[in-house]
Design a protein that fits this description.
CATH class: Mainly Alpha
Helix content: 25-40%
EC number: 2.7.11.1
Strand order of the largest sheet: 1-4
Number of strands: 4
Pfam families: Pkinase
CATH topology: Transferase(Phosphotransferase), domain 1
CATH architecture: Orthogonal Bundle
Distance between the termini: 13 Å
Number of helices: 5
Domain Protein kinase: 1-128
Protein name: non-specific serine/threonine protein kinase
Catalytic activity: L-seryl-[protein] + ATP = O-phospho-L-seryl-[protein] + ADP + H(+); L-threonyl-[protein] + ATP = O-phospho-L-threonyl-[protein] + ADP + H(+)
């Protein structure tokens, strides 16, 4: 997943809808990223986007607040995907979109069970 995002970003492309449903396993066990329907090619590595697109549970605070965003938003989504893979739950859950925005902007997500995974892995998830 990380290599796929790195490849996209090195080619100045934002995925903008990175989530577990867009990660596929090939017949030989490799992971592939899919659903590039809302991907955006930037003109430079420091360029930004501002359109609000994607799946709310994986959106970064910048997107949910209508601010400009860059490659870092895909990394935020990667953190949400890793959290989901480790816990089998979405990092941010809420009864409606407004409550979800508040949780994401405030960074209120449950913790990964520390006894199940290394501190390096859980630290990586929270840094993303």
């Amino acid at each position: 997943m990380v290599l796929g995002l790195d490849y996209m970003h090195s080619n100045k492309t934002l995925h903008r809808d990175f989530k577990t449903q867009n990660v596929f396993v090939t017949g030989d066990g490799r992971l592939q990223l899919g659903d590039f329907g809302i991907a955006r090619v930037l003109t430079a590595t420091h360029d930004v986007a501002s359109t609000i697109l994607g799946t709310p549970m994986y959106m970064s605070p910048e997107i949910l607040q209508g601010e400009e965003y860059s490659y870092k938003t895909d990394m935020w989504s990667l953190g949400c995907v890793l959290f989901e893979l480790l816990t089998q739950k979405h990092a941010f859950q809420a009864r409606d979109i407004n409550s979800l925005v508040v949780k994401v902007v405030c960074g209120k997500c449950p913790s990964v069970p520390p006894s199940r995974y290394s501190t390096h892995l859980t630290s990586l998830v929270y840094r993303l």
